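Batch job 17 of 40 flagged for manual review because the log was empty.
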Amino acid sequence: MKMKTLSRAHTQEGAHTQEGGVSRRTVTRTAVWAVPVVSTAVGAPALAASRGCQSVLGRLYTDQSGDISSIHFAGSGPGQAVSAGVAITQVRRGRTVRDPLGNGVTGTTGTAQYQPGFYYVVLSHDQGMEVGDVLTMTVTLSRPVANFFLTLTQVDHLGGYYDDEVWLGTPGFSIVTRGTEVLGTGTQAVPFSSGSEASIHSNANDVTVTWPGSLDQFVVNYVVGDAGERLSQCGQWIGVGNVGYDSCG
């Protein structure tokens, strides 16, 4: 059985999974303090190109401890650069966690292990999690942008051990691409989920969404679903990445 548990010790380059290892989905660490990580856009850029526009991709910036601190976008012209603040909160066993970035690997960055790849921010529920625990990632942009998009990666399920449920707290989005294993609509009532365990070398458990029109903030809620009696014996995680928007906005 292959666990989904992560630790900061498992985020070094080249430490991702092997069959029979501690975790087949160990995050590959990609960023260092004050050095941006540039995402490669997946899915949504085709929509921009059809309008004669280009996608403006986000650069992920981390702090000294390797946690996400901000996202920066180059913009489409002079004075058009956009920055974004990132806040991550957690409710665990009914109580608000004071510093979720200090626990496990939440807030670190990883990279998709397939092509075309992209970088993402990790949201991780650590060992001892309970059904209903939730991590909330809020990204606030310095100005409104048009046709914002993002990808949720590694949304999966292993019966008895973990169950990912993800819903978007910012309404008005539409699904651009959906992996073959992704279920749901991304709302609180019917969150994105999966009936299978993901492979880190496939996008089958990924979903890309976009918000048509103007957006200056988005919220991602990552909830521990009801996987079974052994739920607390491991951890679970997803990635939020491939962030960007339409240059025509």
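Reviewer: the log was empty due to a logging misconfiguration, but the result itself is present. The chain has a mean pLDDT of 79. Unflagging and moving on to job 18.
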